[in-house]
């Protein structure tokens, strides 16, 4: 029994030396979360992290020299290579704001809608102002006419007649037209509120897209770390089977773990590509947009606070636009009633006609006042009035929906910060437990009561918990951005 125990100890010590490279996180992996200005979880005490971000393996002083002739682990797999960078890269948040202002399709459409509303308002005002028109005609006869000239007789002539005129028209009584001017101005204000809300939504979309890209890159990194650990465990399992201490079933299980890790990499990489493409679309590009590793998410949050001022639900632009839309539909009822009102127009016409062949010139000037009293139009005005009243009731319901949705969104966004903080605390506790488990497993391994495979697995779990904690840090930033923009005013 003592001889078997010594042999087992020697085998376990040999496996420890073999697993030393496996316990190190690959230095070639992108260190997105290693920047100093991003929120980072505190490093776990066991194992200690070196300046390159890799985790140091447990010490095996005196044993590694004796077994240095054993073949070390050399994991080389094409799936361990990171996803190629995007064709376009976002270096800082200021560049994102510039691109949003210049190229965001939704924001550009909303801004042009303001210009369109201003044009319609000018058209409404023009109907209440004087209209001045000038006209001129030339009539040339093609078949000569015959006229009698005293002392000459019959003379054939081709007459050329010149006619000019100026007309002026001024509405004297046009209550519906005058009321329409105020309605057009209100439509312009609604367009401005809609553009302001679209700016808020666009900023939220782009900021969330940036966080999603960073998170997807981190998830891709996590999966490659997991694949490396699975490949290392498979290699150790095969070596153990070659030494006669393992079974074929252990190898098959390790191969299944590698297959599952590869599947996660495929889905995570596709998710990363989609998040880059979504960010590119939000910025107005058809190409995928990546994020520089040194872009600070904390700077994104602080920059948004300078661009958007927080407020309450009532001051949110979409809520204000919905209330203004209710006022607009209420004005349509009054507009329908004004269709029953009479109208009066004053017009003046001046015409001058001249025949070139004769010296005859005719000048006329007329003034006309027209009073129109609508009597019966088949019931069209009554139908318009009924339709306007129905639209008012519809808009009241829409306003209620917008207010309730905004209130729930603000509540969820505020609660999201607390949930993200709680999740981060849970992730921190899980990371600390994984670190303590790794330390105890190391002690048990040195005492001969734990295997090297247990040590590898606990180290992999520690790396996983570390990266999950970093992801929760990103979730906290995302929650803060969502809470800020849930009730913010982002004026241009």
UniProtKB/TrEMBL annotation:
Start and end residues of each stretch annotated as Disordered: 27-78
Annotated compartments: Cell outer membrane
GO cellular component, one term: cell outer membrane
UniProtKB keywords: Cell outer membrane, Membrane, Signal, Transmembrane, Transmembrane beta strand, Transport
InterPro entries: OMP_efflux (IPR003423), TolC-like (IPR051906)
Membrane spanning stretches: none
Biased composition (Polar residues): 57-67
Descriptive protein name: MFP transporter
Source organism of the structure: Chondromyces crocatus
């Amino acid at each position: 029994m003592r001889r078997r125990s010594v042999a087992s100890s020697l085998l376990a010590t040999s496996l420890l030396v073999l697993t030393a490279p496996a316990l190190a996180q690959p230095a070639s992996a992108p260190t997105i979360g290693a920047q100093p200005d991003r929120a980072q979880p505190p490093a776990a005490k066991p194992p200690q992290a070196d300046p390159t971000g890799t985790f140091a393996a447990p010490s095996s002083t005196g044993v590694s020299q004796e077994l240095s002739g054993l073949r070390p682990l050399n994991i080389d797999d094409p799936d361990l290579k990171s996803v190629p960078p995007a064709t376009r890269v976002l270096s800082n948040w200021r560049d994102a704001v510039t691109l949003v202002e210049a190229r965001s399709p939704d924001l550009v459409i909303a801004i042009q809608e303001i210009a369109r509303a201003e044009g319609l308002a000018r058209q409404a005002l023009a109907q209440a102002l004087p209209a001045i028109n000038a006209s001129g005609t030339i009539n040339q006869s093609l078949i000569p006419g015959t006229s009698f000239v005293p002392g000459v007789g019959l003379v054939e002539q081709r007459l050329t007649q010149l006619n000019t005129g100026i007309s002026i028209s001024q509405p004297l009584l046009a209550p519906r037209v005058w009321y329409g001017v105020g309605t057009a101005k209100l439509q312009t204000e609604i367009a401005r509120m809609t553009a302001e809300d679209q700016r808020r939504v666009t900023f939220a979309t782009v900021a969330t897209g940036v966080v999603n890209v960073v998170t997807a890159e981190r998830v891709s990194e996590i999966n490659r770390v997991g694949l490396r650990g699975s490949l290392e465990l498979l290699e150790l399992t095969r070596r153990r089977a070659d030494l006669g201490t393992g079974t074929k079933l252990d190898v098959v299980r390790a191969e299944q773990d590698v297959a599952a890790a590869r599947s996660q990499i495929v889905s995570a990489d596709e998710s990363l590509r989609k998040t880059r493409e979504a960010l590119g679309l939000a910025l107005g590009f058809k190409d995928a947009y990546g994020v520089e590793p040194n872009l600070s998410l904390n700077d994104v949050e602080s920059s948004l606070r300078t661009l958007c001022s927080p407020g309450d639900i009532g001051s949110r632009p979409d809520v204000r636009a919905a209330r203004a839309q209710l006022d607009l539909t209420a004005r349509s009822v009054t507009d329908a009633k004004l269709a029953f009102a009479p109208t009066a127009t004053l017009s003046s016409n001046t015409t001058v006609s001249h025949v070139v062949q004769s010296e005859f010139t005719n000048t006329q000037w007329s003034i006309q006042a027209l009073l129109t009293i609508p009597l019966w139009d088949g019931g069209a005005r009554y139908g318009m009035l009924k339709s306007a009243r129905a639209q008012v009731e519809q808009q009241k319901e829409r306003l209620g929906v917008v207010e309730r949705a905004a209130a729930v969104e603000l509540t969820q966004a505020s609660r999201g910060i607390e949930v993200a903080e709680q999740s981060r605390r849970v992730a921190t506790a899980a990371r600390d437990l994984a670190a303590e488990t790794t330390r105890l497993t190391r002690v048990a391994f040195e005492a001969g009561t734990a295997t090297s495979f247990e040590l590898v697995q606990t180290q992999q779990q520690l790396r996983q918990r570390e990266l999950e904690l970093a992801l929760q840090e990103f979730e906290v930033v995302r929650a803060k951005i969502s809470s800020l923009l849930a009730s913010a005013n982002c004026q241009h």
